[in-house]
Amino acid sequence: MTTASSTAVPTLIGSVQRALRLLEAVGTHRDGAPAKQLAREAGLPLPTAYHLLRTLTHEGYLRRENGVFLFGAAAERLVDDGALQNRRSRMTQSLGRWRDIIGAPVYCAVYRDGEIELVAVADTPAAPAVEEWAAFGETGHAHAIGQCLLSQLDEQAREDHLDRHPVRPLTRYSVRDRPALLERLRSIERTEPVVERQEYALGTVCAAIPIAAGFTAAAMAISVPLDQEERLLPAVERLRGEVASLLRSFVFSISI
Questions:
Q1: Would you say residue 245 has pLDDT above 80?
Q2: Is 172 exposed, middle or buried (0-12, 13-18, 19+ CB in 10 A)?
Q3: Cβ atoms within 10 A of the Cβ of 114, count?
Q4: 71, 89, 100, 249: which could form a disulfide with 94 (CB 3.0–4.6 Å)?
Q5: Residue 241 burial by CB count (10 A; 0-12/13-18/19+): exposed, middle or buried?
Q6: Residue 25: partners with Cβ closer than 8 Å, 6 or more residues away
Q7: Is the pTM of this model over 0.70?
Q8: Rounded to 10 degrees, what is the CA torsion of 173, 185, 142, 250?
Q9: pLDDT tens digits for 61-79?
Q10: pLDDT tens profile 103-140
């Protein structure tokens, strides 16, 4: 006789469980893995694994390239739709804590698919972020975040970016041309802050620091009004000193 305190046993679909184990196995291999290896890691007979892998590939959750299986577009959409908002929310919360401590807007950006992308910004009405009056992704040569990201690229990627987004002065303080920018980028020390004074927006100074995030070029930055410039370097040094703790939430955005 069933009592009120008894816990019902859910009905489980074995084929779904096996498919999920295969997806988990694929997820542990950045460059993909062959069917035999995935079957072994998922604890499945090879014929069963082959059948499930073909089905998952047909449905777009996996793709096969050069004999190995990788995540397909359908699986990537699941990550994008379900986890993107949560990761960015956690990212913004983390930046917000340091915005409050430092007393200045905090920015986070990555270089992805050949473009500069601002991932998150934390500011307040009393300390607003710089207004994007010229397209941020197209004017990396003129702001600290862009220069910091471009300095992390190899020569070919850097030249390709500048072919698509030519250098043009935005203010009288901006770098004047491509050779001057390239010379500046080559002189940037990998671990040092990149400082920009009124090159993107008059009356504003910014500093950016590179973030070590695997193979992704990433940066964080702060900005202050020109008449508070003496705060800039101490504030960015404080931010840099906390990078290790910030990375714990920052890495969520890098995998987007």
A1: no
A2: exposed
A3: 12
A4: 249
A5: exposed
A6: 33, 37, 38, 41, 42
A7: no
A8: -140
A9: 899 998 899 988 887 776 5
A10: 999 999 999 889 999 988 999 999 999 999 999 999 99
